[in-house]
Amino acid sequence: MDYENLMKKCIELAGKAEGAVSPNPLVGCVVLNSDEKIISEGYHKKYGENHAERDALLKLSEDEARGGTLIVNLEPCSHFGKTPPCADLIIEKGLKKVVIGMKDPNPIVSGRGLEKLKNAGIEVIEGVLEEDCRRLNEVFIKDMTENKIFVAIKTATTLDGKIATASGSSKWITSDGARAEVLNIRNRYDCILTSSSTVIADNPTMRHKTKVVLDRTLKTDFKTANIYKEGRIFVFYDEKLVAPLEHAKNLNFIPCPIENGRLDLEYVFEKLYLEEGIKSVLIEAGGRLNGSALKFADKIYHFFAPKILGDNSGKSCYDFRQVEDISDAENFRIVSAKTFSPDIMLELVKSDSVKKF
Ligand code: AOF
Ligand code: ZN
Predict the structure, then answer these.
(1) How far is the CA of 133 from the centre of ligand 2 (A)?
(2) What is the DSSP letter of 134?
(3) By the number of CB atoms within 10 A of the CB, which of 72, 92, 117, 345 ranks highest?
(4) What pTM does this model have?
C-alpha cells in the first residue's frame, strides 16, 4: 500500500486549517476500509473542535471502518481534552491498522496514544513521511518541547541582497505572484512583527489579526499610520518613556527593557509567548531588525527578484556586524525553492529546527 501518498493527502488536508487551529497542531486523516479503499477523510478544522480522526470517523456508518486502516500525520491522542481520546474512538470503530507520520510531542500524549492502540491489538506503522510531518507542525513542536515562540523572517531582495535603493525606495521589489504568496505565509503565523522604521518608511497595512510594532522612541503616528487601523496591536517601547494615555482600543503599549541601545528582542518574544499565548511570529521589517532577529530565527522565507542594484549604498537585508570568518556565518538549510515568476522564494531553516524529542 502506498502510505506515503496517503500521508501526503493527510498533510494537504491538515494544511486547509492553517491559521485556524493554533495553538493546536495541524492534523489530517484518511480512512481505508478492509479492502483498502478510501472511505473517509477529515481534518482538525478549528481550535477546540473535533480532532482529525474523529472528524473522519464520525462521517462513517457504525461498522464501515471495521478491519480498515487509518492514516494520520500525528499520533492519535490518548487524553480527555476538549474531546475524548481519538485512540479510544479508533479502537471502538474496530480499525486494524494505524499509520502515523510522527509521535505527538505533547508530553501528555507522547507515546501513550500508540501504546493504547497497540494494547488493543492494532498494528501501528510509524514515521511515514516523518520529515514532512514535522515540518508541517514545526511551531507546535517548538511550543511543546522548548516552550518558546517560533520565529520566522520574511524578506524580499534583489539578487544582490538589497531591500531598497540607497535613497530608500523599496516598494515592489518583487512581483504580484510573490506578494500573493506572502499573504499565505502570514496566515500561518500567530502574529506579524515589524519596526517603527518600516512603518514610517513604507506605511504598510500588513493585514493580520495580530500585529506587533517595535517602536522604541514612540515615533510612529498612532492615529494615522495604516498598520494601526485594524487588528489587535502590541507596541513595544522603551520602558523609560511614557506611553500615550489616549489611544485606540486595539493598541496595547508594552514597556520593554533596552539592550545595547535597542529593545530587548528576547524580552519581546517571551512576553508575547508567555503572556499573550502567541506561539509564532513572522518578522517583516528592514535590515536592522532582521539583523538582530537572525540569531532567534527558526525559519527564513527569502524572495529574490532577478534585479541587481549594485554598489555598497543599497540597503542590506541583514544589517549587523559582519562576521570575519566564513565559518562563523549564520548557517541555514534550504528546504524548498519555489518560483513565483519572475521571482523565486527560498524557504530555509536552522539546521536543527525540527530536532528529535
Ligand atoms: C489528534 N488529532 O486532530 C489533534 C490532536 O485541546 P484539545 O483537546 O483539542 O487537545 C489538543 C491536543 O491534542 C494537542 O496538544 C495535541 O497533543 C493533540 N492534538 N491530536 O490526535 C488532532 N489536533
Ligand atoms: Zn485526538
Answers:
(1) 16
(2) H
(3) 72
(4) 0.95
